[in-house]
């Protein structure tokens, strides 16, 4: 059994910050459970372009408001607490938080914690050694 608190992982290598977001990684590939789970806050007034070419991501909004844009179709979706979006088709997308947008994200395959978005918004596929 693994029990972890946000307080416990804040300020550690599991706490990753970029100019438009902060992600705290509760579960990573090293736990060997088949997924990773992160609490991510996207900052108000920013814009983040992403494309998870190597991962499926599920995002559940727990706080704040924003907009999700499917860059392939132009379709826009309002984000608010209680909204889930699933990037099951590896969609190019943009998130525009109007307020700080707090989410819980799940990735499959699991992230290692060492991933960084490249110039296309892609996380590389990094695997843990067996």
From TrEMBL:
Coiled-coil regions listed in the entry: none
Pfam families given in the database record: Ectoine_synth
Family as reported in the entry's similarity comment: Belongs to the ectoine synthase family.
Annotated organism of origin: Actinoallomurus iriomotensis
Function: Catalyzes the circularization of gamma-N-acetyl-alpha,gamma-diaminobutyric acid (ADABA) to ectoine (1,4,5,6-tetrahydro-2-methyl-4-pyrimidine carboxylic acid), which is an excellent osmoprotectant.
Superkingdom classification of source: Bacteria
InterPro entries cross-referenced by the UniProt entry: Ectoine_synth, RmlC-like_jellyroll, RmlC_Cupin_sf
EC numbers: 4.2.1.108
NCBIfam families: PRK13290.1
Pathway: Amine and polyamine biosynthesis; ectoine biosynthesis; L-ectoine from L-aspartate 4-semialdehyde: step 3/3
Catalytic reaction equation(s): (2S)-4-acetamido-2-aminobutanoate = L-ectoine + H2O
The protein's enzyme class: lyase
Record-level GO BP terms: ectoine biosynthetic process
Gene: ectC
Keyword field: Lyase
Single GO term (MF): ectoine synthase activity
Xref: CDD domains: cupin_EctC
Name of the protein this chain belongs to: L-ectoine synthase
Gene3D superfamilies (UniProt xref): Jelly Rolls
């Amino acid at each position: 059994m693994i029990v972890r608190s946000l307080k416990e992982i804040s300020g550690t290598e599991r706490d990753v910050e970029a100019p438009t977001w902060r992600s705290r990684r509760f579960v990573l590939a090293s736990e060997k459970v088949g997924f990773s789970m992160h609490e991510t806050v996207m900052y108000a007034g920013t814009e983040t372009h992403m494309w998870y070419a190597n991962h499926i991501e599920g995002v559940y909004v727990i706080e704040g408001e924003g907009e999700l844009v499917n860059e392939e179709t132009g379709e826009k979706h309002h984000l608010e607490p209680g909204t889930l979006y699933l990037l099951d088709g590896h969609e190019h997308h943009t998130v525009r938080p109007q307020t700080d947008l707090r989410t819980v994200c799940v990735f499959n395959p699991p992230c290692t914690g060492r991933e960084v978005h490249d110039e296309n918004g892609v996380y590389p596929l990094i695997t843990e050694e067996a």
